Amino acid sequence: MKLTPRHCPPWRPYLSPTTTTPRTNGPWHHNPRQHPYRSSSNSNSNPPSPSNRPLIYPEPPTKSDHHHDAASYAAYAARTGLDPTSKTYLGTQYEYTVAQSLAQLSFSLKRVGGRSDLGIDLLGTWSVPSSSSSSSSSSFPLRILVQCKAFSSPSGPQHVRELEGAFVGAPPGWRGTSGVLAFLVAMQPATKGVREALARSRWPMGFVACEREGRVVQMIWNRRAEEEGLEGLGVGVRFLEGGSDARGGDGKVAREDGLVLFWKGVPYVPPKAEMGDA
């Protein structure tokens, strides 16, 4: 298994960071599916102190005894005859899939979306290393808002603007910008317009590309998100032998196997969060 960090310049308005992957027998090439290593080198800000008050989650749009994850929702849909091609089914299933997939990166998210969700589909926390500490064992929870877009077409700048509104309509425990981040999650990687909109925003936000089956293939965030606690944190691509996406330095065929976190350039393996542990 190989863990490969990706490097890119800081976010700049109207200038999208390039994503590169080293090749063994040629120049570097652009690969839009992979995320650059994100790390701020000149920011002196420290992450905010998390609130000691317990977070109170809104009630989910359906009773929790009906379903609580992707598998139980599929079973519920089969029992009730819900059309698996309907927007309701596809949207709900994708929200559960996103929550379960991001748990691999130490997110703990609950589904809260409904008719009056104000654009918020998932709420929770993300335990990341504290940038004020030299050790990855010292972590603190950022509060997270997530908006999911369960459609196959790429997202646009208008969806970033919608995400900005999530800060205003957030529940009490997630209001304000101190220690609160919002992520737009979609099935296609971020377009140039999305990256530029994130760079311009004054809100701490990011973007995640999560395929319908649950594979996370991209994760980016803006400078404001770094200032709120992501300084020193990066994301790289994990490769496993036995695929056909890229070739490792030893000549063996390797394939992408999702993303992995880096903390100050070193692979960081966070404790796996369970859905709803926040």
Following the backbone from N to C, one meets helices and strands in this order, namely: EEEHHEEEHEHEEHEEE
For the sheet with most strands, the description reads: 6 strands, mixed
Number of spatially distinct domains = 1
What percent of the residues sit in helical stretches (DSSP H or I)? 10-25%
The gross shape turns out to be: globular
What is the spatial order of strands in the main beta sheet? 4-5-6-7-8-9
Strand content: 25-35%
Structure class: alpha+beta
Summed up, what is this model?
The protein is α+β, with helices and mostly antiparallel strands and 278 residues long. It has one domain. It contains 5 helices and 12 strands.
Describe this structure in words.
It is a single chain. α1 packs antiparallel against α2 and α3 (157-168) packs parallel to α4. This protein has 278 residues and is of the alpha+beta class. It has helices spanning 70-80, 87-102, 157-168, 192-200, 223-230; strands at 2-5, 20-21, 29-30, 107-111, 122-129, 139-149, 180-186, 205-210, 216-221, 233-247, 253-263, 266-268. It has one domain. β7 (180-186), α4 and β8 form a beta-alpha-beta unit. The two termini are 31 Å apart. Residues 6-51 have low confidence and may be disordered. Strands 4-5-6-7-8-9 form a 6-stranded mixed β-sheet, sandwiched between helices. It has a 4-stranded antiparallel β-sheet with strand order 1-10-11-12, with no helix packed on it. It is built from 5 helices and 12 strands.
